[in-house]
Amino acid sequence: MPDDLQIGDRIRVNLDSGYWRSRGWFEGSVVQIQPYSNHRRFYWIELDLEVELAQGGRTRLISVLNPRKLEKI
């Protein structure tokens, strides 16, 4: 599925690692797609709501390398 993601697409992203204090599914939009290797990409997502980082602080802009964490809406 992520191969067909385009800038501007609405998505849901699953935050479930120890990096996040906010966990679960969050909605947002793809704002940039950045190559990482021949077969992988970073997907930059602007979330609709701020999320909390485990070390403190909040953000709305995140990057996702694992395509299994993304669902197109």
Descriptive keywords:
73 residues, 5-stranded antiparallel β-sheet
Reconstruct the topology from this structure.
Elements (H helix, E strand, L loop, with lengths): L9 E6 L8 E12 L5 E12 L5 E7 L5 E3 L1
Antiparallel strand pairs: 1-2, 1-5, 2-3, 3-4
Summarize the structure.
The chain has 73 residues and is an all-beta fold.
Verbal overview:
It is a single chain. This protein has 73 residues and is an all-beta fold. The chain has one domain: SH3 type barrels. It is built from no helices and five strands. The chain has a five-stranded antiparallel beta sheet, with no helix packed on it. β1 and β2 form a beta hairpin. It is globular and about 35 Å long. The N and C termini lie close together (11 Å).
